Amino acid sequence: MSGYQGKKNIPRITSDRLLIKGGKIVNDDQSFHADIYMEDGVIKQIGENLIVPGGVKIIEAHGRMVMPGGIDVHTRFQMPDRGMTAADDFYQGTRAALAGGTTMIIDHVVPEPGSSLVAAFNQWREWADSKSCCDYSLHVDITEWHQGIQEEMDALVKDHGVNSFLVYLAYKDVFQLNDSQMYEVFGVIRDMGAIAQVHAENGDIIAEEQRRILELGITGPEGHVLSRPEEVEAEAVNRSITVANQTNCPLYVTKVMSKSAADVIAQARKKGTVVYGEPISASLGTDGTHYWSKNWAKAAAYVTSPPLSPDPTTPDYLSSLLSCGDLQVTGSGHCTFNTSQRAVGKDNFTLIPEGTNGTEERLSVIWDKCVVSGKMDENQFVAVTSTNAAKVFNLYPRKGRIAVGSDADLLLWDPDITKIITAKSHNSAAEYNIFEGIEVRGAPLVVISQGKIVLEEGNLHTTEGSGRYISRKPFPDYVYKRIKARSRLAELQGVPRGLYDGPVCEVTVTPKVMTPITSNKTSPAKQAPQPVRNLHQSGFSLSGAQVDDNVPRRTSQRIVAPPGGRANITSLG
Amino acid sequence: MAERKWNREKEDDLPVYLARPGTADQVPRQKYGGMFCSVEGAYESKTIDFDALSVGQRGPRSPRSPHDGGREAREGGVEIKRAPGKELLQNLDEDESDRLLIKGGRVVNDDQSFYADIYMEDGLIKQIGDNLIVPGGVKTIEANGKMVIPGGIDIHTHFQMPYRGTTTVDDFFLGSKAALAGGTTMIVDHVIPDPGSSLVEAFDRWRDWADEKACCDYTLHVDITHWSDSVKQEVETLIKEKGVNSFQVYMAYKDLYQMTNSELYEIFTFLGERGAIVQVHAENGEIIAEEQARMLEMGITGPEGHVLSRPEELEAEAVFRAVTIASQTNCPLYVTKVMSKSAADIISQARKKGNVVFGEPITASLGTDGTHYWSKNWAKAASFVTSPPLSPDPTTPDYLNTLLSSGDLNVTGSAHCTFSVAQKAIGKDDFTQIPEGVNGVEERMSLIWDKAVVTGKMDENMFVAVTSTNAAKILNLYPRKGRIAVGSDSDLVIWDTDGVRTITAKTHNSAAEYNIFEGMELRGAPLVVICQGKIVLEEGNLHATSGSGRFIPCSPYPDFAYKRVKARKQLAVLRAVPRGMYDGPVSDFLPMSRGGGSSARTSPTKQTPIRNLHHSGFSLAGSPTQRGPPTDEAPIRPAGRRIVVPPGGRSNITSLS
C-alpha cells in the first residue's frame, strides 16, 4: 500500500511530505480522481501528474476513496463526574477517534456550577494539550447563569476561540437553566455570533418521574429510560426552538436520540428556523431495548441522556432523516465509564454516570446504516461526518474538505472491510461496547492526521500531546448569514398614537408583576440563598443592554421611538 | 330474497334512497332521548314519525309528511305563536308558565335532527314526540319547523372578575343576561383566588356573587394560582363537596400565577387521580416577561406591544409542554383559549397521537384577528387586549373554524372579560398594565353559526356539539345539559338560521364601550330562548331575572375524558427487571446532588417532609393493575411482574442472586 521513494526510512524528511496517488477524492459536493500532495500538515497540491519533491512518502490508493477526516463534534473525554473521571482520557479517546477515522474532536468543557468558565476552559486545554493525539477544539457548557458568566463568555469568544456554548435543560438543580435564563443566554450568544447548543430534556418532569419510578421499586437501568420518555426530549427541543426563534439565535440540538425529537427539528426547519440536529453514534447504531438486559453491567453501559429509545426502529428513522438533510451533523457523545464507576448507581439508576462510547465506531456505523443501505451517497457521508460540522463551527474549509490549503487530515476509506465491533478489540478503556457484536461494513484503511500517517495496516501510530487546539471564530457564515438577514428584517415598531386623555381607573398598587427585573422567583433552580439570588437577578437586566449593542435595526428603531420616549409618542399626536 | 324484495319495496316507497344512495343505510335512533328516555308512559299512544326522523337526510327544507302538512305551510314564516290552550297564558309568573310546549320544531341534537314536539314542565323536558298528550293551559310555541337546539354552554367566562381593586364591567347579571341574549343558557365562570389565599373561600365568594345575580344556570372552574399542601386539601374539598371538577393552572403571568414544570407535574398527577379536568392557560410566561422588557425598552408602549411580546410560538410551545406533562401523568388536558394556528396544530397533532386533550377556541379567536392592535385609536386597540393575544394573521379565524369543524378542537367559550376604557387606560403608558379580556359571550353562537355553518364547514348537529354538547360532556353534565332529551333541563333555543344582525356596541348587552366584533354582520340568531323552562327571550325582548340562576355541581370522572384515561392507567404499568445483585467493584465518588431523588431543592414551593407524603400518592398510578383481576384488558405480564418484584422490593432483587 505505502512505500518510500528513494532512500528508505528517513522519517525526518519523509514524514511531513506525503503523496496519495490514484485516489478518488470525495468531498461533500463531488468526487473526482486526483493525487494529493501534502507538506507540513497542509494539502499543497491536488491534481494529476503533480510535481513533487523527491523523498516523498507515497501512498497508492488504487482508486479507493480519500475523504476528509471525520470531525466528532461531541466528545466528553476525561470528564470529571463526582470525583470520578471518564474512563477514556484525551489520549485514549483521541486514539480511539483516530482508529475510527476521526481526525478532529470537539470536546465539552463542563465547569462546575459556581466556578469560572475560563478557568475550566484552561483546565481542559491543559489536559488536552498534554494528551490529545489529534486536533481538537472545545465547546463550553453554561452550567449556571449570572453576569460574570456573560463576561467570561465574551472573553472565551474573543480571546480563546470558542464559538459554541451548551446549555442544559435537564439535570435539575445542577446544570439546568430555566426558560428566562435560556432566553438571556441565547440573546447573549446571538450577539456574540456563537452557536447555542442545547441538551434538550425537560429536567423538571424527569426529576418527578425519577422519584415516582424509584418509589415503584424500579432501581435498575431500565428506570433511566422509563423516567426519561422521548416526549420529554421532544418537549424540550420544541421549547428551545421556540426560544431560539424568539431571540433569533442559531440553535444546535446535541444528542438527538428519539424519533419525536428529530421530527420536531425537521418541522422547525421546514418553518425556516435555523436549527441543527446532532444524532450520535449510539442513536444511529443501537436502541434502548438493552436497558432491560438481565446483566446489570451491560444495561448500565447504555445509560446516557437523553436515553436510547426503546423503539427499535429509531436508528433507522434517524439515519433516514440524516440522509435527507433534516439532521446535519453527527457526533458520538463519547463518554465512557468503567463498570465499577457505573456501579455507583447499582441501587439507584439516577446515580449511574451517563455516557456511551461511539467515537471509534461513528464513521463505520454511519457508513453501514446509511451508505450501504443506499440512503445516502459517499458525498453526503462526508457532509454529515465532517463538512457540515466544520461549516457550523466555522472550521471550513480548513477542516472538512480536501482542497489546497486545507489541513492534511484525510482518510482512505475501504467500503468493503467488514468487521465485528467488540469490546475486546476496541481502543476505548471501557469494558463494554454498546455496539458489541454488530457487524459493520466500511472502515478506514489509512488515516492521516496533521499530515502524518497515524493508521496503516491496522497499526496505530499516535503521539500523545501532538493534537493542536483549533480556535474557532464567531459568526460562521453557514449559520449567521441567515441570522443577520433576519435581524435586519425583524424590526418592531410602535404605533404613533395621540395621547390617551380619557378617564383612567384608579388601581390599587398590587402590581400585576410582569416585569422580570423585579422578580425574585425567576430562578428557582438556582442555589437557594437569597442574597446570592439577588446578585443573579441584577444580571438579568443586561438582557436588554446587550440587545442595544450592534444590531443595525435598533438604531433605526431609536429614531422613531426612542426608549423611554413616551414623550415623543405623545408629541406625535 | 325476502330482504331484497323488502328493499325494493322500500325503494319504491322512498325514492329519496334512489336519489341519495349513500344515506340509505342510516338507521334512525329508536328512542330520542339518551339515558333519560325511559320515562313511564312517555311514548304511549304516540306515533313514531319516521318521516320526521329521516328529515335530516332529505335536506333542511324538505317537506313534512302529508299528515302534518299544516306546519309545512307555515314553514319559513316568521316564528312563534302564543298558543292558547283553554286559557291564554300571558303572565309568566303563574304556575302554568312552567308548562311549555314547543310544537313543530326540528329538534337538533349533536347526533341527529328530527321533527318533534317538546313538552316541558318544572324546568325539565317531560315528553318528546308527535301528538303529545299534554295538560290543558299550556303555553305553546309554534316553531314552524325552525330548529330547536340545546341552549349554549359558554365554558369560559370571567364575569365580575376583580382586578387590582376594580371589577370587570359585566357582573354576573349583565354577563349572564348578555349570554341569554345570544342563546347561551349556561355559563361556566372562573374562580380566581389571589395567590396565597384560600381556594374554598374564593369559591364561596364567587358563588355568593353569582347566586345573587346570575340569571342563567352556571357552574365554576377554580383556578389554581399557587400550589401547596393546603391547596391540595382544598382542591380535594372542592371536588368532593363543592361540585367542582375542573381546575385551571397558568403557565403565564410570571411571578403571579405561573406554575413551574414540577408544580404542573404534581398538579396534573393530583387532579388526574381525582378525576378532575386540568385546564391550562398556555403561554410561556418566562419568555413573555423577557420580551415585554425588551419591547418597553424599545419604546413600544402601546397595545401592539402586547401582541409583539406574546408571539404565537410561545403559545404553541406552552401547549406542547402541557401536552407532554399531561401525557406523562396520564391526565386529561383542556387547553383554554386557543388563539393561534400553531397552538391549534399542536393540539390536533397530539390528538392524532392519542392524547386526551381538548382545545377551546373562543369567540374572539374564531371571529376576529389581531390586526386591530395596530389601530391608531388607543382605546380600540386596547379593547382587543387579551392573553394569549389574537393572532395578527388574518387567516387564523378561518383556520380555527376549520379545526373546530373537523373535531380537532372540541368546545367553544367566550372568555368574556370586559373592562371599560377607563379601566383599560390603566395601561395607557405601559401595555403590560392593560387589563386583559375581550367580550364574546353574546356573540358566540351567532358567530360560530355564521363562520362555520353558513360557510358549510359544519352542519347543525356539529354546531350543537361544539356550542353545548361537548362542553356538557367534559363537565360531566351530560345529558342534563347539552341535549334535548326527556329528562334533560329545559334550556332550549329556537334558532333562526336566517336572522341577520350587525354587531355593535350600541346595541349589545354588555356594559363595555367597545365590541371587538363591531360592524360584523352575522347570520343566525336565537329567536326564542328558554332557560329553566321559562321564556327569557322572545321577539327581541329579554326577560331575565337576576338571581334565578342555579349553581350546577359537576361530578368528577367525566366519562368523556376519563374512560380512556382509566383504561390507559391499567396498561401503563412500569416494571423493573429482576436481576442478580451487582457485586463487582464500585468506584468511590463524591455525593453530589445530581439525581433528582436526593435533591432537597427540587420544588422551591414545598417543604421536603410534605413532599414525601405527597409522593406516596404517586405509587397509586400502578395500583389499579396490581389490584385489578388479571382477566382485565391489562396485559398479564404486569401482574406476574409484581409478584416477582414488589414495589420497594430492592431487597428482593438481591435475594434472587
Q: Work out the number of β strands of chain B.
A: 19
Report strand % of chain A: 15-25%
Low-pLDDT stretches of chain A: 1-14, 511-573
What is the first-to-last residue Cα distance of chain B?
71 Å
**Uncertain residue ranges of chain B:** 1-34, 36-49, 54-79, 85-96, 594-657
Rg of chain A from C-alpha positions?
25 Å
**Biggest β-sheet of chain B, characterized?**
10 strands, mixed
Largest pleated sheet of chain A: 10 strands, mixed
Structure class of chain A: alpha/beta
Q: Write down the overall geometry of chain A.
A: globular
Describe what you observe in this structure.
The complex is a heterodimer of chains A (573) and B (657). Chain A has 573 residues and is of the alpha/beta class. Chain A has 20 helices and 19 strands. Chain A has helices at residues 11-14, 90-99, 117-131, 147-159, 179-192, 203-215, 222-226, 230-247, 259-270, 281-285, 296-301, 314-324, 339-342, 362-371, 378-392, 477-489, 530-540, 542-547, 552-560, 566-572, and strands spanning 2-4, 17-26, 31-39, 42-47, 57-60, 65-68, 70-75, 80-81, 84-85, 102-109, 135-142, 164-168, 195-199, 251-256, 275-279, 410-420, 439-449, 452-456, 459-460. In chain A, α9 links the parallel β14 and β15. In chain B, β17 (521-531) and β18 form a beta hairpin. In chain B, α8 (261-273) crosses α11 and α11 packs parallel to α12. Chain B is globular, with a radius of gyration of 27 Å. The termini of chain B are far apart. At the A-B interface, α5, α6, α7, α8 and α11 of A face α8, α9, α10, α11 and α14 of B. Chain A: It comes from Denticeps clupeoides (denticle herring). Chain A: One of its GO terms (biological process) is nervous system development. Chain A: Pfam families: Amidohydro_1.
Task: Provide the fold topology.
The complex is a heterodimer of chains A (573) and B (657).
Chain A lengths: L1 E3 L6 H4 L2 E10 L4 E9 L2 E6 L9 E4 L4 E4 L1 E6 L4 E2 L2 E2 L4 H10 L2 E8 L7 H15 L3 E8 L4 H13 L4 E5 L10 H14 L2 E5 L3 H13 L6 H5 L3 H18 L3 E6 L2 H12 L4 E5 L1 H5 L10 H6 L12 H11 L14 H4 L19 H10 L6 H15 L17 E11 L18 E11 L2 E5 L2 E2 L16 H13 L40 H11 L1 H6 L4 H9 L5 H7 L1
Parallel strand pairs in A: 2-5, 2-6, 7-10, 10-11, 11-12, 12-13, 13-14, 14-15
Antiparallel strand pairs in A: 1-5, 2-3, 3-4, 6-16, 8-9, 16-17, 17-18, 18-19
Helix pairs in contact in A: 4-5, 5-8, 8-9
Chain B lengths: L1 H12 L1 H5 L30 H4 L15 H6 L7 E2 L16 E9 L4 E9 L2 E6 L9 E4 L4 E4 L1 E6 L4 E2 L2 E2 L4 H10 L2 E8 L7 H15 L3 E8 L4 H14 L3 E5 L10 H13 L3 E5 L3 H13 L6 H5 L3 H18 L3 E6 L2 H12 L4 E5 L1 H5 L10 H6 L12 H11 L14 H4 L19 H10 L6 H15 L17 E11 L18 E11 L2 E5 L2 E2 L16 H13 L36 H9 L6 H5 L8 H9 L5 H7 L1
Parallel strand pairs in B: 2-5, 2-6, 7-10, 10-11, 11-12, 12-13, 13-14, 14-15
Antiparallel strand pairs in B: 1-5, 2-3, 3-4, 6-16, 8-9, 16-17, 17-18, 18-19
